[in-house]
Design a protein that fits this description.
The chain has a single domain, classed as 3-Layer(aba) Sandwich (Rossmann fold). Strands 6-7-8-3-9-10 form a 6-stranded mixed β-sheet. A 4-stranded antiparallel β-sheet has the order 2-1-4-5. Helices cover 32% and strands 29% of the residues. The protein is built from 6 helices and 10 strands, in the order βββαββαβαααβαβββ. It is globular and about 50 Å long. It is of the alpha/beta class.
Length: 234
């Protein structure tokens, strides 16, 4: 883990209009630092603002006020096109529901980010095969996703998130759809990738059984970071 910041949020606020003249506040003056190469977890009750926060960090949502800088890229000073280009090249996503496309085989699913970024399909599929071998699924290249187990589907999702070599991986409840044994194996794989590629991981989780893998854990409540812990005892 570096002493350089991968994510720097200062006084970030975000609210949503949920009905006419009815506003809900998701983030209120939030500050957060995440270091490059860190395996960082966000915990807290449902509705506390975790998903809103990672959406802002990923450049998917824009905050109402404050600053969010990711790898020296300040979203507030960039155009929508610049943000989209930055996100496509620098950020990977791992979701709890895997978000695989059933009409595509495993290799095609993994190759998608490269094809979206303009790489020719043949080259993208070759790289997909390489990264699938990294997660021990090289033999599943041509398989339909719905023929894989939950753990295998999550490994495909991890391969897809890694294929364009992002500096930041954002993971939303990556173990919630998995049993404990499979979830543990997935976390061990992610931790291994974190060390090998020195990618920064931000993981939203309610699963306190995986806290032990974190370098630090931030506990959120009511739209703020309440505390940051290194002792894994939240």
């Amino acid at each position: 883990m570096s002493n350089q910041l991968a994510v720097k949020c200062r006084n970030v606020t975000k609210s949503f209009m949920i009905a006419k003249n009815v506003e809900t506040i998701a983030l209120q003056g939030l500050d957060l630092d995440v270091y490059k190469g860190e395996f960082f977890m966000l915990a807290g009750p449902s509705g506390c603002g975790k998903t809103t926060l990672i959406s802002i960090i990923a450049g998917v949502l824009q905050q109402n006020s404050g600053t969010c800088i990711v790898n020296d890229f300040d979203y507030q000073t960039k155009s929508a096109r610049e943000v989209l280009k930055f996100r496509a090249k620098n950020i990977g996503f791992i979701f709890q529901s895997f978000n695989l496309v059933d009409s595509l085989n495993v290799g095609q699913n993994v190759a998608l980010p490269l094809i979206i970024n303009g790489m020719k399909q043949r080259e993208a599929l070759e790289k997909a095969k390489e990264i699938l071998e990294e997660v021990d699924l090289g033999e599943k290249l041509l398989s339909p996703p719905n023929q894989l187990s939950g753990g295998q589907q999550q490994r495909v999702a991890i391969a897809r998130a890694l294929i364009h070599k992002p500096s930041l991986l954002i993971c939303d409840e990556p173990t919630s759809a998995l049993d404990h044994v499979t979830g543990t194996k997935i976390l061990e794989l992610m931790k291994e990738i974190n060390k090998r590629f020195t990618s920064t991981f931000i993981i939203v989780t309610h699963d306190n059984r995986i806290f032990k893998y974190a370098d630090r854990i931030a506990y959120m409540d009511d739209g703020r970071i309440e505390r940051v812990s290194q002792d894994h005892e939240l």
